[in-house]
Amino acid sequence: MVMDEGFRIIGSESLKSYESSKGKLRYFCKNCGSQIYAKKINTPHVVLRLGSLDTQLDLKEQKHIWYSQKVSWFDLDSKIERCEKFE
Ligand SMILES: [Zn+2]
């Protein structure tokens, strides 16, 4: 998650969006279909797909979201906060 004021995208002409649910736009590359980020109206942030980054990310994880939806075989060995949903 990245706050709007810290988010800038270069090459936005290569993006298309799809409203996957009311008020939530998912942006993806119109050439290869890769998901880039999602934006829900009236929220102060975007949800960035980390797989879209091509630079080193110098941040640490802060919490696990949608923990209630994890697959049963995924054994989470972490002490950080677990949120049942995206809070
Ligand atoms: Zn692409």
Describe this structure in words.
With 87 residues, the protein is an all-beta fold. It has one domain. The protein has no helices and 7 strands. The strands form 2 sheets. It has a 5-stranded antiparallel sheet, with no helix packed on it. Strands 6-7 form a two-stranded parallel sheet. The chain is globular. The site of zinc ion has 4 residues, from loops.
Give a quick summary of the entry.
The protein has 87 residues and is mostly beta strands.
SSE layout:
Elements: E1 2-3, E2 15-21, E3 24-29, E4 35-40, E5 45-48, E6 63-64, E7 81-82
Parallel strand pairs: 6-7
Antiparallel strand pairs: 1-5, 2-3, 3-4, 4-5
The structure holds zinc ion.
The total count of strands amounts to 7
Q: If strands are numbered along the chain, what order do they take across the biggest sheet?
A: 1-5-4-3-2
State the helical fraction: under 10%
Q: Tell me the β content.
A: 25-35%
Radius of gyration: 15 Å
Quickly count the domains.
1
Mean pLDDT: 91
Amino-to-carboxy terminus distance:
11 Å
The distinct ligands, each listed once, are: zinc ion
Shape: globular
The helix-strand sequence is EEEEEEE
- Detail the poorly predicted runs: none
Could you describe the largest sheet, including whether it forms a barrel?
A: 5 strands, antiparallel
Structural class: mainly beta
Count helical runs.
0
